[in-house]
Amino acid sequence: MIDKTALREQARKARVAQPDKLQHSSAVVDKFFALPSYVAAQTVMVYVDAGSEVKTRHRLAEAIAHGKKIVVPWCIVETCELELFHLEDVSELVEGAYKILEPKAELRELPTKRVDARELDLVMVPGTAFDRRGGRMGQGKGYYDRLLSNVRPGVPLVALAYECQLFEEIPVDAHDVFMHHVLTEQNHYVISTD
Known about the structure:
The protein is 25% helix and 24% strand. By secondary structure, it is an alpha/beta fold. The protein has one domain: Rossmann fold (3-Layer(aba) Sandwich). An 8-stranded mixed sheet has the order 6-3-2-1-7-10-12-13. It has a 3-stranded mixed sheet with strand order 9-8-11, covered by helices on one side. It is globular, with a radius of gyration of 16 Å.
């Protein structure tokens, strides 16, 4: 049996040690923007990077400029839930929980800014470790698994990672949600087609 805690720690250390993060992140985000499912999508969830994750914040303005409805998740710490926010300008974000950029408090509850997970046509997903079957390991709190379980069936779930975060096998539980694609700076792992 694979030790989840040890694997998560190994993946975190590899991700932190990853050199040239910005350059590699740009290559990964380029692959995301080139996906047929991205080109076709109207409403796209894009995560805002935290810590050593594949960097996305430097490409948010570009995503908005593509003319799509760009949605970012933000964390309700008390309930361990992710809410979704329609991002129209990068200036709508400020540093919040866990030093993650998130929507300004005064904008979060505006009806025009709230988004239901069932509206998403494509979902970009961060993580700590992945495997080539689409298995994903997050931070261990289940935020993304709960959010992704509310997305419409068939909506492509696309993980962004560095190649060093890929493992032969990730231990998964019944509640874990599998990715359809895993994009790294070196490869595009297609688990199921869009």
